[in-house]
Amino acid sequence: MDSLHGIPGHHFGEPLGSFPGLVPIGPKELGAQSYYYAKGGEPGWFGKRTKEYSNEFYTRYTFAEGRFVSFFASGRGDMRQALQKQAEYLYGPGAPTNNGSLWAGSQAEAWTAPDNRGFGPATTLLVRSKVFASQQEKAQADQLKKENAQ
């Protein structure tokens, strides 16, 4: 998990400029901004699937302070099993969970899980920096404290 420290071609901590063609998605949340590749701009296995299966597959890249910290992919239909197999190819067999797989290293973590919301059953893959995960958890706790104090 830690040897890849991200996804093929990109390591956590890389600057946004290393990802030409990304387009922001919505507003920042807890100091992080998510992006997607404009049609046809995403490289590698994930990009190929996004092009070929545009109605069944999508990806999202998240940056905090201008640095790559998290990757998300979702696949429906035939892409559900393909996404699980790709995660196992990249990170190894993983540890089974109640509904997917988990990969954990000292610097990064990833998991797959089913998602039955939205447009039908999907498999999701989330890969994130553990430093970012810790920062997000702290920011969420601080926000909750602030909301409860009001």
Task: Summarize the structure in words.
This protein is of the alpha+beta class. It has one domain (6-149). Helix content is 28%, strand content 39%. The protein contains 3 helices and 10 strands; from the N terminus they run E-E-E-E-H-E-E-H-E-E-E-E-H. The protein has helices at 44-52, 79-91, 130-149, and strands at 6-7, 10-11, 22-29, 32-37, 57-64, 67-76, 95-96, 101-104, 108-115, 122-129. An 8-stranded antiparallel sheet has the order 3-4-5-6-10-9-8-7. Strands 1-2 form a two-stranded antiparallel ribbon. A hairpin with a 2-residue loop joins strand 1 and strand 2 (10-11). The termini are far apart.
What's the short version?
With 150 residues, the chain is of the alpha+beta class. It has helices at residues 44-52, 79-91, 130-149; strands spanning 6-7, 10-11, 22-29, 32-37, 57-64, 67-76, 95-96, 101-104, 108-115, 122-129. 28% of the residues lie in helices and 39% in strands.
